[in-house]
Design a protein that fits this description.
By secondary structure, the chain is of the alpha/beta class. It has 5 helices and 10 strands; from the N terminus they run βαβαβββαβαβαβββ.
Length: 194
Amino acid sequence: MIVVGVGCGPGMLTVEAIAHLRNASRIFGSRRALEMAGPYIPPHCEVAPIEDYSRIGELPEDAVVLSTGDPMLSGLGHLGVDVVPGISSMQCAFSRLRLPLARAVVVDAHGKDESAAREEMLEEVSRGRIPFVLTGPEFDIADLARIMAERGIDGTIIVCEDLGYPAEVISFGDPKHPPHASSRLFSLILVKDR
């Protein structure tokens, strides 16, 4: 099985990913990933949405499985024999914001204990790192801002929504005036004031 990253939004596939798609005989993925890869899928190819991710191990050996963003950034990369990288939401956000990836640290708060993820974020930002936080739609930005204010942590809270899509929005705030997310598809970046 090959896991191919389709990027975080339309037009973010790599040349290597496109080559794998054009040579595939069977492609599986989420509806969103299939839509992004659609222009590069050959007409003879069997295409099917993945409805039950717990059954991915049952897919044929020659399957190409699509993963949104980069498969190794909280994606499906751990499932593949081969993994083709994609342009991740982190790469996109840090490029848009002109932030150095060398100071980045990934915090996965999607479907995890939010208080533990929040502590990890705040610990990393206190070290001068720039946490890139993969959130779920339920993530409470206002609560994070409140705790930052209580602890005297000054910094910029950045909400990145729908990265790579025409509706992309990047909002800025601070602990006293936190930004708000209006979509379900967002990530969070914390940058400590120097």
